Amino acid sequence: MEKVVVVGIDISKDAIHACVKESVGDAVSRIRGTRKFLNSYIGFTELQFWVSKRARGADSVWYVMEATGSYYENLAYFLHENRLQVSVVLANKIKYYAKSQHLKTQTDKVDASLIADFGLSQKPSLWQPLSCAYKQLHDLCRERICLKQARSRAKCQLDAMRNSHDKLACILRIKEEQIALYEKLLP
C-alpha cells in the first residue's frame, strides 16, 4: 500500500506552523509531528529537514498551505525550487472545509492539522509559480489597488475635514497634496 505524507502549513508573517500527517492506503491518517518554525530561509531549511526525518519510507510527500496574503510566497518558491510537491489553496476553501468538519477550535496548530487533512482528502492541484512577467503584472496590480484604496480613503478624510469645525488650513493642504500625489501615480 502507498504511504502518503502531507505537511499542512499554517503560515503568518513571522511563523510557520506545520503538521505532518501520514496515510497508508485508505487507513485513517495519523499525526507524525507538529512544530513551529520561523518564516525565513533558516526556518524553511529547518522545516525541510524536520519533514524529511518524519517522512522516511513515504512514497510521496506533499506540502499544502493556504494563500495567506503574500506570506506564503517565499516558502512556496523555496519548496518548489527544491523540487518538492506544493499545493497552495485559497483560504476560503480551507474555511469551508473546516465548517464541513464541524471544527470550531481555531489555533495555528489546529489549522495546520486541518490543512493536512484537507490535503489528504481533497488532493489539491500542485502549485506552479507565476512566470516572471505574470509575477511583475501581479505585483503592479496589487500596488495599483493599494494606491486606489489610499486615494479613496484620503478623499473621504478630506471631505470630513472640510465639514468639520475650524480645521487648520495647513492640514487641509497636506491632505489635498496627498490626493494630488495619488492622482499623479494613478493614470
- SS summary, helix count: 6
Binned, the helix content reads 40-55%
The H-level CATH homologous superfamily of the largest domain, spelled out, is Ribonuclease H-like superfamily/Ribonuclease H
Number of structural units classed as domains:
2
Low-confidence stretches: none
General form: elongated
* Amino- and carboxy-terminal Cα gap: 59 Å
Mean pLDDT: 92
H/E element sequence: EEEHEHEHHHH
Number of strands: 5
Give me the Rg, rounded. Answer: 22 Å
Largest sheet descriptor: 5 strands, mixed
Query: What percent strand?
Result: 15-25%
Q: What's the architecture of the largest domain, going by CATH? A: 2-Layer Sandwich
Description of the molecule:
This is Transposase IS110-like N-terminal domain-containing protein. There is one protein chain. By secondary structure, the chain is an alpha/beta fold. The chain folds into 2 domains: 3-122, Ribonuclease H-like superfamily/Ribonuclease H (Nucleotidyltransferase, domain 5), CATH 3.30.420; 132-185. It has 6 helices and 5 strands. A 5-stranded mixed sheet has the order 3-2-1-4-5. The longest helix is centred in the C-terminal third of the chain and has 31 residues, at 132-162.
List keywords for this structure.
22% strand; Nucleotidyltransferase, domain 5; 2 domains; 51% helix; 5-stranded mixed beta sheet; alpha/beta; 187 residues; elongated; 5 strands; 6 helices
